[in-house]
Amino acid sequence: xxNLTELPYAKPxxxxxxxCDYSFGAVNFEVQPYRPNITSKMMKLLAIPTLLAGAAxxxxxxxxxxxxxxxxxxxxxxxxxxxxxxxxxxxxELYTFLTDxxxxxxxxxxxxxxxxxxxxxxxxxxxxxxYSDGKFVWHIDLIDGREGADWYYxxxxxxxxxxxVADYARSFHVVAA
Length: 177
Prior knowledge:
By secondary structure, this protein is mostly beta strands. Helices cover 11% and strands 41% of the residues. The protein has a domain at 53-175: Immunoglobulins (Immunoglobulin-like, Sandwich). It has one helix at 40-58, and strands at 11-15, 20-24, 27-31, 70-72, 76-80, 89-98, 102-106, 114-117, 121-130, 135-139, 151-159, 164-167, 173-175. Strands 9-6-11-12 form a four-stranded antiparallel β-sheet, with no helix packed on it.
C-alpha cells in the first residue's frame, strides 16, 4: 500500500501533529497517525509488581540471629518486628527444613536437573499477629523431633495485604533440652 503523500492526486489540505486532511477532488477525509495507546491505566498496571514488592519489603523482623545459632527447646524466644500503626493482622509462621536435602531423582524436564526434597514443614505460631504488637513470645518446641544441626528453623510472616511471605533470612537450629 502506498503512502497517501506519494499519490499524485492526493493533496494535503492541512497538516497537524494530530491529523492530516486529504482531498481527492470532492471527497475529503482525515488520516490520523498510528500512536501506541499507552494510557495511565497501562502505566498503573506496569507499576503493580513494584508496589507489591515495596509492600512486602515494608515488613521487617528485628531479631539478630547469629549464623548457625542453636536455641534450646523448652525456653522462650521473643520474635520481634517493626511496629506499624495498622489494625490488620498477619500470620506468624515457623518453617523447618533439612540442612542437606534428600536426592529424589533426575528431573523429567529437558534439562535433567536433580530433584531434591527438603522435607519442609510450616507451623502457624499466631494466625492473627498484630502489626502494632511488635513481638511474640515463642515457647521453643521441637517440630516432629527435628533437632540438631541436620534441621533448620526459620520464622516468617504471611502478609495478608499482599498474599506473600516476608521471610526472616537467618535460619537457626533447635537442640533438645
